[in-house]
Amino acid sequence: MSLAEKLFGSFSDRELKKINPLTKQVLALEPKYQAMSDPELQAQTPALKEKLAAGSTLDEILPDAFAVCREAAWRVLGMKHFPVQVTGGIALHRGDIAEMQTGEGKTLVATLPAYLNALTGEGVHIVTVNDYLAKRDSEWMGKLYRWLGLTVGLIVQGLDGDARRRAYNADITYGTNNEFGFDYLRDNMVTYKDNMVQRGHVYAIVDEVDSILIDEARTPLIISGRGEDSSSLYTQVDRFVRTLRKSVVVELEDKVETDEQADGDYVVDEKHKTCTLTAKGIKKAEEYFKIENLAAAENMTLAHHIDQAIKAYGVMQRDIDYVVKDGEVIIVDEFTGRLMIGRRYNEGLHQAIEAKEGVKIAAESKTLATITFQNYFRMYKKLAGMTGTAKTEATEFTEIYGLNIVTVPTNRPNIRKDYPDAVYKTVNGKYKAVIEQVMECHKNGQPVLVGTVSVEKSETLAKMLQRYTRDFNVLNAKNHEREAEIVAQAGKKGAITIATNMAGRGTDIMLGGNAEFMAKAQMRKEHFCENLLNPEKPEDADPSAVELLLTESDGHGETTDEKILAARKRFEELYAQYKPAIEAEADEVRKAGGLFIIGTERHESRRIDNQLRGRAGRQGDPGASRFYLSLEDDLMRLFGGDRVAGLMDTLKIDEDTPIENRMITNTLESAQKKLEGRNFEIRKNVLKYDDVMNQQREIIYGQRHKVLDGEDISAEMHKMLRENIDSSCAQFLAGDVKDEWDFGALRRHYQGWLTTDADFHYTVEDYDSLSREGIADLLYDRGMDVLNDKEQRYGAPLMRELERICLLKCVDRQWMDHIDNMDQLRQGIALRGYGQKDPVVEYRIEGFDMFDQMVDSIRESSIKMLLTIEVRKAGAAPKREQVAKPTGEGFVPGNGAPGAKGAPKGQPVRVIKIGRNDPCPCGSGLKWKKCTCAQYHPDGAGNTQE
């Protein structure tokens, strides 16, 4: 704690002092609204809206709005906000992060600020980490909002444009961070304003805010199109890399000294996760591919492929970073342990891994639009978030997002026991101790959850545990299909669960088990849904319809469907039947000590460790946690393990004896802080580069909005014509010596649209009467004559639409190429650092030079298209179409170190390909090959020709 915090208290303490009186005001209004009838309480929503319209502020109506929402929640959901939940709601309204522990009811907390801010009619976005939570919360809490007269929308994958538009037009919209971000990008690719779906970014509440704004901050969203296919080169390079010898060092001291530190063909830096070819490796590459110099400009593509291939072999590990399933390489999320289906690493790394694993190599993709989560969420006028673990990232939240953290007290005291770390000499000794602890808990009837950091390690531990018992479950990326079942029963008496990182699982572990899951399991066993769907032949019931009905059996959405109502009735009967037994078992588990959490390795981030611990001790339940570590663990080995190993050798400690020492804990915490600081710097670096792109993106998207809004851009096009001609004349007719003017180049430049072969053939005698301005005027007048002629033939309305089409097409085409060019600039700019120049400053300067060049290109290509385009059928309005077909939506790795060869984990690109026989995403219901929508079939200029 800093001196300032000791003297004045932390920000959280000071903020709570301001919030607590407001909380008391809200609670004091309880009798007033309790006394109202349902219609009277519902009438408060329009009354509060009227107050806002009359000039009251949101802060002024907060006590009444919160009290109304609180009373309505009791009547509609049977849930009343605890005082601490009201406190959390006020923090969210003020634009802070409410740090609330697991099981404290964050879903209900969000209803208070969401209801209050929705009264403005400008829209509230509630952001979750997955579609399941968005759907669940929108249905569950949606009952409350609708009862109060507000509308609720849901944004999930698979919705068409109309459904998305309706969802965004609702007062409160639930959805995932990915969907909100992609919709923003798609809105800035549409060709008609009516196709846009979002209506602004006013207020967002982000659930699991640390996961979205910190963990995913290095993974910009992208919408991609099909790039070139270079699968044969990946295969050739893979064959070459298999012949190389790898050297591994903990940390490379200096890139210049690579060859002194390693005797292999390439060296892997474990600490920074980078790979570098040695001089020996470079020589081998030049001999293998029969080239003189690998560093030559013409060999850049080959060098890039080799870099990606050595990363695939040196850094990326199967069953840790990715798994191979059904002939596909699927990334494993390092933070959650989940499979990231459909996502891909970019820059060719994924293809290099595919070549390494011998599976089909997919084509590369081209970026059509991109934005980081950092810049997307900074667009909101007010941003707030909820999480159980934010304190360790407080600096980043404040510096990047301007968000402060308010630690909300728990409703009941947290009585979980967090034991000191037990450190062993070897991994084997550590695992033996873990199994001993697991079996002791199992014998006492205490459920235990063992957290591991990878699929590989969870399977290793499971094999060792099999010698003692087979009564356990393993939850990792390979069997994620059973996730709900395993998590639901992880709190049962004596249960043993081995799981990869439990972050973001979204399901509380209930002591004694989960009555909801048991009710559904019984419905499966008795084939209730099958009999409901197909009474005569239950075995023929559609499996997907069965799953949908089971999902709806405990849903909260309003429905009149008789089958869903029957399924809900059966679910409620079974739930009531199982609940008493579950509660009795929960009491036994509490007596046994509650859930015991065992961590088998420290994560790079203390926050992830805290999330694992936070699975125990929810809502005042007992629980315990302990981390079992070894000197062979990656974190210990790479950061300060030598000192601890020396201490153990001095004390002559064997592998089965643990050591509990404050020095070890301090060493680990220091290492974690260093890593957190380094990762923060990486994310800050990503943002510095994206801020340059963001300024350019805002200019381009602003230009598009003008066109989409239907503004008359005729004068703008005429200005572009004039500026382009003036610029070209200054270039080709430079200086005062007319004999040196390049008339031929000027003629060729405008050949076919402003000049002919007969133009600009002058004799020396003609020079006296010539001027640069006169030639520019001549060309401008010609251009204006063409435009005026077209306007006469087509009419003003059609001409205005042609102007919009030309500008949109050219802006989009040039912007796509500019994104690629800026990405290439960023990859090479880091080398400027060796010349004592700041790479970010250099990137900004060169980036804006490139932007100016792009604007010049837009100016010329737009006016050229307008002058040469002809409408095939007189009087027919041409159709605007996208310049490229999106083939994927996803994530681009950005480790913030341009040109760096590292392969940061968890930074994938998701690519969703549309097959010819797949349903068209536009929502028409037709197969893609049969559909004719412009959005996903941009195949030319429609009924226009250039």
UniProtKB/TrEMBL annotation:
Cofactor: Zn(2+)
Record's subcellular location: Cell membrane; Cytoplasm; Membrane
GO MF terms, alphabetically ordered: ATP binding; metal ion binding; protein-exporting ATPase activity
Domain Helicase ATP-binding: 87-225
GO cellular component labels: cell envelope Sec protein transport complex; cytosol; plasma membrane
Catalysed transformations (reactions): ATP + H2O + cellular proteinSide 1 = ADP + phosphate + cellular proteinSide 2
Enzyme Commission (EC) number: 7.4.2.8
PROSITE patterns per record: HELICASE_ATP_BIND_1, SECA, SECA_MOTOR_DEAD
Coiled coil regions in record: none
Residue span(s) of domain SecA family profile: 1-660
Region (Disordered): 878-906
Pfam families named among the record's database cross-references: P-loop_SecA (PF21090), SEC-C (PF02810), SecA_DEAD (PF07517), SecA_PP_bind (PF01043), SecA_SW (PF07516)
Function: Part of the Sec protein translocase complex. Interacts with the SecYEG preprotein conducting channel. Has a central role in coupling the hydrolysis of ATP to the transfer of proteins into and across the cell membrane, serving as an ATP-driven molecular motor driving the stepwise translocation of polypeptide chains across the membrane.
Family of this protein: Belongs to the SecA family.
Known partners and oligomeric status: Monomer and homodimer. Part of the essential Sec protein translocation apparatus which comprises SecA, SecYEG and auxiliary proteins SecDF. Other proteins may also be involved.
Name of the featured protein: Protein translocase subunit SecA
Protein's organism: Faecalibacterium prausnitzii
